[in-house]
Amino acid sequence: MPPCGRSAQGHNKPMKIGELRSIANDALASAGLEERKLFVKGAKAWCLPGGALTRFFQPQPYRRGWGFVFTGLMGLEIPELRQWIVQHHLTDAGIFHHSFVTYHTLNDADRSNFMIEEGEPVPVDQWAAAIHHKLANLPSTIEDLVSTYRAKPERLGLLAASPQAPAWRFLMHWVDSPDAALNIPRSNENGRIVE
User: What's the pTM?
Assistant: First the structure.
């Protein structure tokens, strides 16, 4: 594992962000995640295989003068909901244009574990294992997701935080009655969500 800020080729040059992305992607693959699109015309992400839900991580690492921050989006996509959106609302996915819910890992309490200073070894294998663990602890079926949200939303962490409430309210209505007339929440021109 190359030290942060030093090229894997052994040169005494700072590691570039592309090199960090490359070794991080290799580590995510070794941890059992698969890189694929979240849905047709959707963004690529590293997904935990198996289950009716797509549990994913989209890396967004960046370099600072002092080292690297390995961050990104942690999220859930619901393929069955996506099919319903495409069938009844075509390309107007409202707040679900990217996925069902996401949060940025810089908001995680353990975010300092994903920062590395210049000259320190880059623990990409530990990062990948931690990401895999977070995803594996999320429900893998719609039924489990809904029951977890209703009974113990704290188990979903920041995916169930208050900014995500419109998505969850919609899901609860959709699960109870997936009527084609259900209105998808949307952001208005001021950024407020209209349900």
Answer: 0.89
What is the percent of the chain where pLDDT is above 90? 63
d(C-alpha 162, C-alpha 124), whole Å: 31
HEC string of the chain?
CCECCCCCCCCCCCCCHHHHHHHHHHHHHHCCCEEEECCCCCCEEEEECCCCCEEEEEECCEEECCEEECCEEEEEECHHHHHHHHHHHCCCCHHHCCCCEEEEHHHCCCHHHHEEECCCECCHHHHHHHHHHHHHCCCCCHHHHHHHHHHCHHHHHHHHCHHHHHHHHHHHHHHHCCCCCCCCCEECCCCCEEC
